[in-house]
Write a structure and sequence with these properties.
Layout (H helix, E strand, L loop, with lengths): L2 H15 L6 H20 L5 H19 L3 H14 L1 E5 L2 E6 L1
Antiparallel strand pairs: 1-2
Helix pairs in contact: 1-3, 2-3
């Protein structure tokens, strides 16, 4: 899957359906709501957990497009950074000791 193409597809769907594409704060709020629904589905062992997680991802992908952020590049950069980090268990807490 090409995430950048998916970003554009999500954006086009929002425009075609008349959804918000200007109020960034509102998009964060909607994404938070979807994350809450996913958490609820997990806690209540509902069958729609996957769909709720997809909603969270779609809001994140759409928000990235609204902000002009190539999410795929950012994810790859962050994974490389995370893989190089070193952690130690200090008194039962995993603590980053080297960037």
């Amino acid at each position: 899957m090409d995430l950048l193409q998916l970003q554009k597809r999500v954006y086009q769907n929002k425009v075609a359906k008349g959804f918000n594409v200007t109020d960034i704060f509102k998009e964060f709020c909607f994404m938070y709501g979807e994350l809450s629904e996913a958490c609820d589905a997990y806690l209540k062992k509902k069958d729609d957990l996957g769909e709720e997680l997809a909603d969270v991802a779609l809001y994140l992908i759409g928000l990235s497009e609204l902000l002009g952020i190539n999410l795929e590049e950012e994810i790859m950069h962050k994974m490389e950074k995370n893989e190089k980090r070193i952690y130690e268990n200090k008194d039962g807490v995993l603590t980053k000791v080297k960037e």
